From TrEMBL:
InterPro entries: Ta0600-like_sf, UPF0147
The name this protein goes by in its record: UPF0147 protein MCP_0019
Gene3D superfamilies: Ta0600-like (1.20.1440.50)
Highest taxon of source: Archaea
Family annotation (SUPFAM superfamilies): Ta0600-like
Protein source organism: Methanocella paludicola (strain DSM 17711 / JCM 13418 / NBRC 101707 / SANAE)
Record-linked Pfam families: UPF0147 (PF03685)
Family: Belongs to the UPF0147 family.
Ranges annotated as spanning the membrane: none
Amino acid sequence: MSNVEAVIKQCVDVLSRIKDDDTVPRNIRRSADSVKNILLNTKESPAVRAASSISILDEISNDPNIPLHTRTLIWNIASQLETISVDG
């Protein structure tokens, strides 16, 4: 498994945890699920998937209703996805 695939898998795992967390508002869980689906879409390049995901994650991290622990997880996922280079 390449480094890029490992990063994506790790992010998908955390997004699944967020999606299944009942303490997280429904709209944020829905967004986490859509980011997960974007990351799993192998028709797009990893860089495109990462960029699309970061955009959505940035939006939901600014939601005033997001629990603090979830915001931290979102920031960590975005940081991980930022390591995916355009040529990778």
